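Record type: monomer structure entry
Structure origin: computed from sequence
Chain ID: A
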Amino acid sequence: MQVSVMAFGRIAEITGNMNVTVQDVRDTTALRSYLEATYPAMKTAKYVLAVNKQIVHTETVLPDAATVALLPPFSGG
């Protein structure tokens, strides 16, 4: 299984790339664990996940070829 991960803002600075491909992650919990192991600064970063353009707040199964966006906090104005 392959998942495309797109990072924005401060999260893109941490990962050093706005687009990353991750193999063999079943759900959002496994993805977060992978990101924190690969990019230690992710442990303290604040962000939400959007799976296939839908923000998720609970553990979510990732379908094959899913696109996950890592979204830092933002405000409007």
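Annotation 1: The first strand starts at residue 2 and ends at 7.
Annotation 2: The mean pLDDT is 93.
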